[in-house]
Design goal:
153 residues, alpha/beta, four-stranded parallel sheet, 6 helices
Length: 153
């Protein structure tokens, strides 16, 4: 992939342009230099390259590199409110739910999607209450990456 693609894309649209599949801080830096509106930390479910860096391991270093210049979204296996809390605690600005809403859609259409979203939000609230976090910002003081992970590269 050439980052020049983002330069051309920015010329053709006023819509926000995000890059998905960022696992290294240098890639986030390059993408920002070429005008992306946000980065999505993801290893595409590990389907693109077996034994790829885990997105959760990569998240803290990407967040540090981005330093608030653009939103950092996390998309890699969040299935519950506790998963969402962990990703938010490691610095993600938002967490994408890949499959859970699809399961709800398959079972009960739009109402199934609403149910899944209500459940995930309730689990997030419960996780925050049980950990003593009053805000998402509080989660960031409670969650730290394990030593020796990708964020220390």
């Amino acid at each position: 992939m050439s980052y020049a693609y983002f330069d051309r894309l920015r010329e053709t649209t006023d819509l926000p342009v995000l890059i998905k599949g960022v696992l290294h801080p240098d890639d986030a830096e390059q993408a920002i230099a070429h005008g992306v509106s946000g980065v999505v930390v993801s290893n595409h479910g590990g389907r693109q390259l077996d034994r790829s860096t885990a997105a959760l391991d990569a998240l803290p270093a990407v967040v540090r590199q981005v330093a608030g210049r653009v939103p950092v979204l996390f998309d890699s296996g969040a299935r519950s409110g506790a998963d969402v809390a962990l990703a938010l605690g490691l610095g993600a600005d938002a967490v994408l739910l890949g499959r859970p809403w699809l399961y709800g859609l398959a079972i009960d259409g739009a109402e199934g999607v609403r149910h899944v979203l209500r459940c995930v939000l309730a689990e997030l609230e419960l996780t925050m209450l049980m950990s003593g976090a009053a805000t998402v910002g509080d989660l960031r003081h409670m969650v730290a990456p394990a030593p020796g992970r990708a964020d220390e590269r």
